[in-house]
Amino acid sequence: xxxxxxxxxxxxxxxxxxxxxxxxxxxxxxxxxxxxxxxxxxxxxxxxxxxxxxxxxxxxxxxxxxxxxxxxxxxxxxxxxxxxxxxx
Length: 88
What we know:
The chain has 88 residues and is an all-alpha fold. 84% of the residues lie in helices and 0% in strands.
């Protein structure tokens, strides 16, 4: 990427064009975050059941961490069971 030509192009933009670019970039960022939270809702069982009320982003993150911790413990327990069975 040629930063000098990019900087030159930025200097040629009007204030209104820069603002429009910023608004579009911010919209894209917010849409990406929204899509990520929607994916978490569909992947985490406790979040995927419609209870009529949407969860805050903080709750979604907290429930996702709990879900991951639970799954990691289950994996560890299963690996331990396999090791014990292999020794028998």
